[in-house]
Design goal:
The chain is mostly helical and 260 residues long. The protein has helices spanning 3-18, 21-30, 33-39, 41-55, 62-69, 117-144, 156-178, 184-209, 220-232, 237-251; strands spanning 79-82, 86-90, 105-107, 146-147, 150-151. The relative contact order is 0.12. Residues 116-237 form the Acyl-CoA dehydrogenase/oxidase C-terminal domain.
Length: 260
């Protein structure tokens, strides 16, 4: 990461730690998010969405990614497909009344088809950041928690769960890095891999943290709920994997998706 991106990342992180929702949406606009999306999307999307996951903040900017890919003005909201064949709108206002995981996401009638590849890639980076946040919480707990006179990080079962989580995150990151353009199949697979990595992280990190991970005072359950919501948006990992299989079956061959 060059110096300018490093400074931008620090500014974004400090902003996201303090605010969320419509306030963060406005703050990102002031920091030039829409200009970054237009001029340097390959750097801006992983950076901004990854930090949303790591900090636990939220903003409705997946709308901007989808609208930009459709050639429409950013700053609005668009109906998006959700797991199970439903549709939702991620509103740009703060939530009031019934919401999904305290996010301003509401069920909506089916909307017009929009390009989903760029949005799936962006959500993949968000899920990856969320996975890293869960892994960091579990790792810190494993180092601090002492049983039988030694940290639980020394127990083989704990090490295996943390290692499997790290491998899943690494695989998802490699898949996302390979999805540098808006090719539908690569972005579909990248989002599916990121969703599966987040579910793996949620399962293993919950086991490492034990009962404390369920408490309202601990951050883990917030990240788990966020991962479940994001996995369902624009297609769940299970649905996307099935869709990818159908696509390959219909094509009759597997195209080269990455240069190794």
């Amino acid at each position: 990461m060059d110096e300018s991106l490093r400074l931008l990342a620090e500014s974004l992180r400090s902003t996201m730690v303090g605010v969320s929702g419509s306030k963060l949406d406005a703050a990102l606009a002031d920091l030039g998010w829409l200009d970054m999306l237009d001029e340097i999307p390959t750097a801006a999307v992983p950076l901004v969405f990854g930090l949303l996951g790591e900090t636990g903040a939220h903003a409705p900017i997946v709308n901007d990614v989808v609208l930009s890919a459709a050639g429409r003005p950013a700053g609005g909201a668009v109906a998006l497909p959700y797991a199970g064949g439903s549709w939702v709108v991620w509103e740009r206002s703060d939530p009031s009344g019934s919401t999904l995981d305290d996010l301003p996401i509401r069920r909506a009638p089916a909307g017009e088809p929009v390009p989903l590849a760029a949005g799936r890639r962006a959500l993949g980076w968000w899920l990856l950041g969320t996975s890293r946040a869960m892994l960091n919480l579990a790792r810190r707990h494993a180092l601090d928690r002492v049983q039988f006179g030694r940290p639980i990080a020394s127990f083989q079962a704990i090490r295996h769960r943390l290692a499997e989580t790290l491998v899943a995150i690494g695989g998802a990151e490699a898949t996302l890095q390979a999805a540098q353009d808006d090719e539908d199949l690569t972005c579909l697979l990248a989002k599916a891999a990121a969703g599966q990595a987040a579910l793996t992280a949620a399962r293993h990190c919950q086991q490492v943290l034990g009962g404390i991970g369920f408490t309202a005072e601990h951050a883990l359950h917030h990240h788990i709920k966020r991962a479940l919501v994001l996995d369902g948006l624009l297609g769940s990992s299970r649905e996307l994997t099935s869709q990818a299989g159908k696509t390959l079956r219909d094509k009759g061959f597997a195209p080269r998706l990455a240069q190794l």
